[in-house]
Amino acid sequence: MSTATGDRRMRAVVVHGPGDVRVDERARPVPGPGEVLLALEWGGICGSDIAYWKKGASGTASLTHPLVLGHEVAGRIAALGPGVTGLGEGQPVTVHPAQLVGDGVLPARIAGRTNLYPSVRYFGSAAFDPHTDGGFSEYRAVRADQIRPLPDGVDTERGALAEPLAVALHAVGRVPDLRGRTVLVNGAGPIGSLVVAAARHRGAGTVVAADLAASSLAVARAMGADETRDLARGDGLPQDVDLVFEASGAPAALGPVLRATARGGTLVQVGNLPGTPAPAVLGDLVTREITWIGSYRFVDEIDDALRALRDGLDVTPLITHRFPLERAEEALAVAADPHSGSSKVMLRLTAA
């Protein structure tokens, strides 16, 4: 990718180290062969963005140099690079943020499950050196095969939520058929609330959401939960639930969640668990013969997410705060504060 020179500049949200995020000025990129230049409009703050800002690391990926944050983004095509066809300037789009590194070949047993490919560059990730800059910037050059046009009627703010909705749709897709089933979603943060919406979209019968924060439970209700359990007020989890989605990622939650899962039932682990030792009560996994399934990112469910948005799945209750790009640090602080009442915090990446 080449970059422009002279006064063609742009702003970007860059994390330089733990607690050090800045709105830096950078050269505006120029799209190379097979790339498009996006003028970004909206970005959603994710837990990984917060982790890089607070700790300088997300999971096992640590910063070794500054990184542009953001993988939940949408905007409009500003220019086409050489050889790009089928797309047009001004077209509203979002981005599939994953790019396989290498030949892309997977063992036959996981053929097609590209989310399990061992070497993936992801927007806004420090997993590689050099890091893969994200999309919290006014412009970004993107490979044309990562572009996903937005359907008619889906604006770029909702389009920026196609990525986390894809995570939720992948999670519910780990179970063959939800139709008519009772579902428990433990953890009603942004992903948990999107799992509520995805389960409802896929035909679940009754959806129960549980969380420690009343504000998160209010979002889950607006996203389609029939019932909520406020764990901070002493509400217990329902018992003997056939299908459970654990979206909190808290090891302390695993014991109660396993106990809530019916004998012979299924637990889908959506929330990221820590990569370091942590105590958890797991005995019921064996004695109740529970099927415990992992769910990681998504394959092509971003296309399903866009179709769901086109067909009327409403993700707007998830959005609780909006900030301009220049207030990115404040936006991160609100998203990270469990007492702020925030769910999905959005950044307006260009002037309205």
Automatic annotation (TrEMBL):
Q: Which cofactor does it need?
A: Zn(2+)
Q: Which residues form the Enoyl reductase (ER) domain?
A: 17-347
Q: Which SUPFAM superfamilies match?
A: GroES-like (SSF50129), NAD(P)-binding Rossmann-fold domains (SSF51735)
Q: Which keywords does this Swiss-Prot/TrEMBL entry list? A: Metal-binding, Oxidoreductase, Zinc
Cross-referenced Pfam families: ADH_N, ADH_zinc_N
Q: Which PANTHER family match?
A: SORBITOL DEHYDROGENASE
Family named by the database record: Belongs to the zinc-containing alcohol dehydrogenase family.
- What is this protein's record name? L-idonate 5-dehydrogenase
